[in-house]
C-alpha cells in the first residue's frame, strides 16, 4: 500500500513519466550529468570523461516492466527526475536522481525519493534498494541516510567504472515485504 507523504514542496506532484515526456526527462538527465561531470572535474582535478547527453535509447533500461522514470513537477513544469531499474533477485537500483538547483531545499528531493521507495516495494516487490552517489554529493548522502540507507561495499552491476569507484559511495536499504520499508 502506498503511504501518503507530506513534504514542504507546496504544489509539487510526483508521477511516472511516459515516452511522451522524453524531452523533459532527457533534458533533466542531461542537465544532471552536465552538472555532475563539471563538479567532478572541479572537485577532483581531472575530467571523468563521458558524454553528458542522454538519448531516448538510453532510457530503455528504466522503462516498464523492469524500471520506472519519475518526474517531479511544480506548476506543471518538470523540476526533478529519477529512475529505477530492477537488477537481480529482488534488488532495485535508483539512478539519475536530480532536482534543479532552483528547487533544492524545498523537500522535492525527499518527496521524489519517498515516492520511488514506495514503488520499489509496491510495484516491483523489491527486497533491497541500492544506489550510488559521488563523494561530493553530500546533501544527497544526508537524504539517503535519513531514509535508512547505509553505506556498503561496491555492488555488482554498478555502472561506475572500477577505476573511479573509490570516489563514490554505495548505499543499500533493505525493505520489508509486509510494510514496504523500514523508515
UniProtKB/TrEMBL annotation:
Keywords: Acyltransferase, Transferase. Gene3D superfamilies: 3.40.630.30. The keyword rRNA processing does not apply. Transmembrane segments: none annotated. Residues 12-174 form the N-acetyltransferase domain. InterPro entries: Acyl_CoA_acyltransferase, Bact_Acetyltransf, GNAT_dom. The keyword Acyltransferase applies. One of its GO terms (molecular function) is acyltransferase activity, transferring groups other than amino-acyl groups. PANTHER family: AMINOALKYLPHOSPHONATE N-ACETYLTRANSFERASE-RELATED (PTHR43877:SF2), AMINOALKYLPHOSPHONATE N-ACETYLTRANSFERASE-RELATED-RELATED (PTHR43877). This is Acetyltransferase (GNAT) family protein. It comes from Microlunatus soli.
